[in-house]
Structures are given as structure tokens and as C-alpha cells.
Amino acid sequence: MDRSPRPALPEPTTAGSAAATQVSRRRFRTLNLALFLPLLATVGALLVARQAQSWGQAAVLGLGIVAALVAFERWTAGDVARVAVPCLAVAAGTWPFGLLVVDSRNQGAFYAIAVVGSLVVSQLPRHRGPAASGLVVYVAAVGLIGLLTQSPADADGVIEYVILPTGFTAIVTGLMFPNKRFYDVVADLEEARERDAELAVMRERMRFAGDLHDIQGHTLHVVKLKIALARKLIHSDPERAEQELGEMYALVGDTIAQTRELAYGQRRLNLAAELENAKNLLEAAGAQVRVDSEGDAGAPADDLLAQVLRETTTNILRHSRATLVHIAICEHSISVVNDGAIDDVLPELRGLATLGHRVSDEGGELTVQLEGGRFRTAATFPAPTSAAQPATAGEARR
């Protein structure tokens, strides 16, 4: 019995994980920009138009709106720290300008500092609480100075200059903290999913390594014993030694053929066993698997359909973030449909391309489609005709 250690496995690649993470961030950014950037720009433009009394004042107040939009755009890209200082400086300056220079009630010059400040403070690595308090205090202090410069200072002035700006800033800043936590949770879930997918791929590699070990490990052990025997017999029994060498030669040749079959997916597989393995791998990666089986395929269809299922399972784990996989098996066909395609362009799938030629050689057809975020792989073999059986019998009689 061969007790040599199993081969060590290579470390899982992180290229697929990094690609999936980048795709998720890009989708979140696109969603935020499409939903909120027009809203922020529209509200800012209306506030400037309502408050400014000249084109010069509109230009200065507009700088604050531009700073808010730039900060938001960088925030969606996770890079708000790069523009934090200039945007905060501009936004912080437009608030007292609108209050002390423009000198009009029902104004919204605090809008820029509230937006920029909330975006920057929520992304600070530490001391977010004190920073948020400082932002609110600044807005309140400027509002109080503006109120004291007005004559007379009444209750409406307190609301418009102090309570409204301070409350708005505090609410927006407070809402950004659970918002950031939400994105952190989504990122953690995405990373966990990617780790599960990598573990599933490692399980597949382990199975491949086990098959390779089963093929070569036993052969190498037997060859070692036969070499030792041939060395002892080479002088005392040359014919027996030559026989042992011939057996070693045949054994090594058979092992090379089996290794080639394993490497190129030409080894005979069992469809039922492959289906169970695919189901376990996909469920381990977090996907829900539904299997519809209406019959058993016959050789060579069973072997080729099993190879298509194995290769498709590997592609799902590497090229998608599938949450639902539907496997349908009929007597002469298999269809695998999964959601969560990472890209809108069909990736290069060399394994399936190679299998496609083998399926075609057996009279079948392999199709691969990507549409609406769903990836579909299907292999179909023609059903044997009843007329073929008598012909075969006739040929056997001849």
C-alpha cells in the first residue's frame, strides 16, 4: 500500500477575488452617482439661486456646491481623503460668506459644509466622534455670529441662522455613520463570499491532486520495488530481470497515458458522482443549487457530460458570483445556468473550448451563452436512431 505523502497544493490565486471586489465597488459607485449626484447638484443650484443677489455672490456660493459635488464623487470612489482639505476649506468659507456678506434670510450657505463635512468625517480612520462634534460646533458658531450681526435678533433668526444649519449638519453627519457601516458590512460579506469561492476551488484542486497521486504514487512505488528486484537479478537471472524491466516500461507508459487523460480532462468520469461533487462545491461557495434529472446518459455521453459539468463548475467558481445555479440533465443533454456573471462580455474559456471539439467529434453540440447576467452552458448529443441497430446487427452477421 502506498503511504507516500499527498502532494502539496498551490496557494489559491487572488486575481478572481480582486476582480470581484473591484466590480462590486464599481457597481456601488455607479449607483450612488446615478441616484444622488443629480439630486445634490439640483438642491445646491436652487439654494444658490435663492440666496445670491448678484452674479459675483452666485459664483462664490457656487464654489461651495462644486466642492460638495467633488467630495461626493471622490467619496463614491473611496478616495475622499485626497480632496478633503481643499473641499473643506472652500465649503467652510462659503458658509460665513453667505451669512455675513450676502446677508439674506432663508439662505442655505451651510449646505456645502454640511455635505462635505459629513462625507469627510465619516471616512476618518479614527476620532470620528470629536471631528463630527467640531463640525457641528463650527456651523453653530458661525450661525450665532451671523445672528448677532443682525438687528434685531428674533426667534425666527435663531431658527434660520443657528438651529436649522446646525440641525441639518448634525442629521446628515449622523446618517453617514450607519451608511459607512452598511458599506463595510457589504464589503465584509463580499470578502467572505470570495474566500468561500477560493476554498471551493482549493477543494477541486485537492481532488485533482488526489487523482494525480492515485495514478502516479502507486506506479512510482511499484517501479521502485521492481528496480530493486531487477538489480538483484541482473547477474543471477538476466531473463527475469529483463522481464521486470519490460513490465516497468509498460507500467510507466500506462501511467503517462493516464496522467495525460487526467490533465486534459479525458479521463472517464461518472456523471452521478460529478453531479454530487459539483453540488457540494457550489453550495460551499454560497450558491443555491437546483438539480433536475430526467434520465441517465450512456457512454460516451455520460463521460463527456460529466466533463462539461466539471469544467462549468470551475468556471462558475472563477468567473462569477453566482447565488443560484440550475443543473438540468436529460438522457442525452445537460444544461447549467447560473446568475452573477461578473462581466458583460463572455470570458475566454479554454477548457470548454477544448471540450467543445470533443463533443463535436462525438456528434454533439456544446453552446455557451451570456445574457442578462446569466451564464448558460449546454451540451447535447443526438439520440440514437432505431434504424442504426438492425444495420449494426447485419454488419455483425457479415
Automatic annotation (TrEMBL):
Keyword DNA repair: no
GO molecular function: phosphorelay sensor kinase activity; protein dimerization activity
TM ranges: 31-49, 55-72, 84-102, 108-124, 131-152, 158-177
Start and end residues of each Signal transduction histidine kinase subgroup 3 dimerisation and phosphoacceptor domain: 204-267
GO cellular component: membrane
Keywords: Kinase, Membrane, Transferase, Transmembrane, Transmembrane helix, Two-component regulatory system
Organism superkingdom: Bacteria
UniProt protein name: Two-component system sensor histidine kinase DesK
Organism: Blastococcus xanthinilyticus
Lineage, highest ranks first: Bacteria, Bacillati, Actinomycetota, Actinomycetes, Geodermatophilales
